[in-house]
Amino acid sequence: MRYTGAEPAVARLAAAARARLPEMTEDTFAHIIAEMPVYADARFVSHEKLWSSCDANLRFLLRALEEPGTPDLSQAAATGQERAHQGAPLPELLRAFRIGFTEVWQQFVELTGSDDDTAGLIAATRALWTLIDDYTETLTEAYRTTLAEITRTRHEKRLALVEALFAGGTATEGTLWDIARMLDLSLDGTYLVVAAETPGLGQEPLPGMENLLRERLYASAWRLTPELRVGVVSLRERNAADAVMGLLKENATGRIGVSPVFTGLGNTARALHLARVALSSLMPGTSGIVQFTESPLAGLVASDPEAAAQLAHQVLRPVLELPGEDRNVLLMTLRAWFDCRGSTKLIAERVYCHPNTVRHRLKRITDELGRSLTDPADIAELGTALRALTMFPDAAHLPPVP
């Protein structure tokens, strides 16, 4: 029920109480400080501002009880908005309001001098508690609306900062500092970047991961795109990477790529690229997690996917153009040659064939490619081309370089 205006008896009590406003303000302020630690410690509101708020709200309350018509509740709304911006808890705010209303009622009791005034006190009490409902409803609505707007604005700003962090390139030192502060990340901390493939358009592949990491005291920031959920995870120490990897494995539902451990928030965009490269090394449709832990050469290859793919096609084109089975056998043998450091015996064990078969295949590879497995320059090009082909399998389908 809405308060619709003062009865004559209520107006008289309110007018009499208004003469005691300084005393009521002091008593209300003192009770709030004595009963509520959050206000006693000035945790959200200074004592000076709290006193001013007590005075303003008591004035509005008495005026509403004294004057006819719909009461002005703007002060209640203003207080709700201000406390939301200050971060004060809503239950504590409502409790402080109740202390102020109780102070007014006690003044009414003291001003009721005889039994003949009892009817007036009853009317004032009824009016006061109706007005309490109106005040608290207005205050609560203003508080929640303001808090929702603050939360939305912060969320949008956080998303923008995370986007800037992963995009890289345009971030200055000052911008990075703002990003680090807003995301609660260290500018020169140690990190991992995670790239998880979404199971469907915009669907979450790692539900609750940010909270799981927070429970284990790992700060992180995440962004969801139509195809990926990407996050940067702060490690308290470098060897914490194993614990984070374990947590990711426990919750993996699809392909997940992870960057190498790196230092410095400004390197996040580069790390994201490596995490995506690691993800692409997993077969589509499978579930698993791979960390990019290759050599510096692999990092160099990954830094320019287009050039790396062109290199792979240019160096390996004669083999790539062979029929499927021949192509796969020769590529497998060449990879084994690098992995086994040229040992024919180890290659034979790796690919399950006779050493003479290995020698025959290697001879065919060098003939097809026109390159030697004894020339350091040829070996370097072949090794780089194989890495590029592994990271970017589509290189096998590029058109010939003009």
What does this protein structure show overall?
With 402 residues, the chain is of the alpha+beta class. The protein has 3 domains: 8-150, Globin-like (Orthogonal Bundle); 174-293, Alpha-Beta Plaits (2-Layer Sandwich), CATH 3.30.70; 305-397, PucR C-terminal helix-turn-helix domain (Arc Repressor Mutant, subunit A, Orthogonal Bundle), CATH 1.10.10. It contains 17 helices and 6 strands. Strands 1, 2, 3, 4, 5 and 6 form a 6-stranded mixed sheet that branches. The longest helix has 50 residues, at 118-167. The relative contact order is 0.07. The mean pLDDT is 82. This is PucR family transcriptional regulator. Belongs to the CdaR family. Residues 330-388 form the PucR C-terminal helix-turn-helix domain.
Assigned CATH class of the largest domain = Mainly Alpha
How can the largest sheet be summarized?
A: 6 strands, mixed
Shape: rod-shaped
CA gyration radius, whole angstroms: 36 Å
β-strand number: 6
Q: What is the residue-mean pLDDT, rounded to a whole number?
A: 82
Number of domains: 3
CATH topology of the largest domain: Globin-like
Q: What share of residues are in beta strands?
A: 5-15%
Q: What would you say the CATH architecture of the largest domain is? A: Orthogonal Bundle
- Helices, by number, come to 17
Measured as a percent range, the helix fraction is 55-70%
What is the terminal-to-terminal distance? Answer: 83 Å
Q: How do the SSEs run, as a string of H and E? A: HHHHHHHHEHEEHEEHEHHHHHH
Q: Which blocks of ≥5 consecutive residues have pLDDT under 50? A: none
Structural class: alpha+beta
